[in-house]
Fold this sequence. Notes:
Layout: H1 18-27, E1 63-70, E2 72-82, E3 85-107, E4 110-130, E5 140-149, E6 152-160, E7 166-175, H2 184-191, H3 193-196, E8 209-222, E9 225-238, E10 245-259, E11 262-267, E12 270-272, E13 282-294, E14 297-306, E15 321-330
Antiparallel strand pairs: 1-3, 1-15, 2-3, 3-4, 4-5, 4-6, 6-7, 7-8, 8-9, 9-10, 10-11, 10-12, 11-13, 12-13, 13-14, 14-15
Amino acid sequence: MIRASLIGLAVVCLSQWAHAEEANVGAVGNIGAAPVTSTGGESFASPNGQLGAGLTSSPEQKGRAFVELGFGRASTSESETEGGITVDAEFHYNVIPIIVGGGYKITPNLELVAMLPIGWGNVGYSVTATGGPGLDALNQDQSESGVGVGNLHLGLNYFSFDGPVRFMAGGAIQFGPWYKDYDPGPAVGAALGHPAGGGQDIGLYRPETVSIVAPGRVEYPIDRVVLAGDAALGLHIPTDGADAELSIQVAPGVGYYLTPTAQLGLRVPFAWLPTDSGSSATYLAVEPYARFDFEKLFLTARFDLNIDEPYGFSFDSGKFWGIHVGLGSSF
């Protein structure tokens, strides 16, 4: 597994949502209960499509599609001077992680879900020596780039909007037989979605590994506020004969509806690998997010601040933070 560094950066531009707000105010007395689609059905207040955004209670909805894009960079540098000669060294990772996915309702309460992580990665280093004659031969500048594809997620979710609590629970298999023996550039592109996403969903990003996962989500609306929690259990089986690993991840969170179609929120993703040890056994992050609904469309943005080793603290040298923007639609 690659233990690398990532800093993610992206920009999202959002237009007015006044028309959608007016439509929803007329349809919902309690504007914080849930986003409401043009067909009148409730939708999960999730921060992105991976966690259920775009999935509604409407019997008219047949499916949904979503994509999320990020940009990241991590770097570390050192400089040493001795005898009047200065040597500067820099090492970096650049990555553009993408997740594309969708769901299709096979019954009013069952959804087939597919997701695929893809990433462009770049890894490189440079060494520069100054302060004396004949030092040009020591200077180096090397990098490799490429596109890598992670593990395909195929799952089935049961969901319900009955009662005061909305929930979703299911099971999935994550595996990509193509995900092995990547060169450094594609390997960075395929793997660094994990630290960019706050250490969640490790099964999407591990090469040569079959993962069996059981994800779930619970939401409880209180006026404009939505209390929420995401969780997943995972069994990760390497195809090269190495020992299998277990993963447990949780992400409590809260969202607040500024308007019927604009939500701000905060999640605290935490993942634990009980079969691992040391700093690589736990991943803790803080994730503020925003979501905007436009009838059948939704836009999302989130920022992942890693807190502890191995990916944090995010703003330390060589550590990770990630920012993502997403777009999705119900149909």
